[in-house]
């Protein structure tokens, strides 16, 4: 109820697919995170002082770091849609990924400090008292953190935000922290055993593992990850609807932040068609891509001979040969250069995960060609691709 109320009230006029909507949802998530975490941090600081629990005090610092992380997220969402400038020609969209990385690092540092404090308490134990007000504060904190996890996960899924999904994971880890603290207090109360510090170590390990997982999710887009296969399939389907395009290759998708894609590719076109007509067709496809994928699109034309029987026959034979290496392999840009020693020049697209080296692949392909069409010099270019070229 509260989640839907906040979302509808705060962003009811926004188009869910727009960059402005992302900004508004990001600001909403950051604001809620700041308010909730500051309140919880103050409450837990008080509970930690009253009970003398290192676990509760450390959890208070954890909530304070979450509030700081929410401030960072808020700032990043306010600046991520800043227009491109001379120093940043593709805009500032990747700031969102940096925000998620900062949140992750903050979580890990908090976990390390939590371990240090807990170990100190093992060797220098202090009495921990059970206080009903402290218990109530922790129970309320648990409820609030579970709601924040649901809230951030829903917003993160709606706008596909790494930073907000990281905040949702953080709230789950905080909930586990609180449950562990409550369990430790119960054990101490009913048995007299001092488990506060040991509970703190277990909680810290979970927090650190969560932070490491979130770092990977934040750094992958910054390092440059392969595009979503569904996006590649959508691009292929749109482009291949153009009757003048016979095939595409060298597809590259650069992600400069949500809603800021740069897509380029080579498109095979008939060499015997009017160049101006082909240019118009390519430009039309580029415009369709810009409208559908909200991207910058560039298509390079590769003219290929379609009315030479020798070239067509050779391409079919070599295509069949390379399919024996990998079913997704493709051949393109094949041409025959006549002379005393005829030369075959062509490219082969091969998946990255194929174990053979480029040198081994070239040797294998050359041997296969010699077995069916001896006498050709071969210039073979191997291109590793990150997706199934048949999608």
Q: How is the secondary structure organized here?
A:
Blueprint: H1 2-11, H2 19-51, H3 54-79, H4 95-123, H5 132-159, H6 162-191, H7 196-223, H8 229-239, E1 247-255, E2 261-270, H9 275-293, E3 295-304, H10 309-323, E4 330-337, E5 343-351, H11 358-372, E6 377-385
Parallel strand pairs: 2-3, 5-6
Antiparallel strand pairs: 1-2, 4-5
Helix pairs in contact: 1-2, 2-3, 2-5, 3-4, 3-6, 4-6, 4-7, 5-6, 6-7
Would you mind describing this structure in some detail?
By secondary structure, the chain is an alpha/beta fold. The protein has three domains: 222 residues, Up-down Bundle (Alpha-lytic protease prodomain-like); 80 residues, Cation efflux protein, cytoplasmic domain (Alpha-Beta Plaits), CATH 3.30.70.1350; 84 residues, 2-Layer Sandwich (Alpha-Beta Plaits). A three-stranded mixed β-sheet has the order 1-2-3, with helices on one face. A three-stranded mixed β-sheet has the order 4-5-6, with helices on one face. Strand 4 and strand 5 form a beta hairpin. Helix 4 runs parallel beside helix 6, helix 4 runs antiparallel to helix 7 and helix 6 packs antiparallel against helix 7. The protein is elongated and about 95 Å long. It starts with a helix and ends in a 6-residue tail after the last strand. The model has no long low-confidence stretch (mean pLDDT 82).
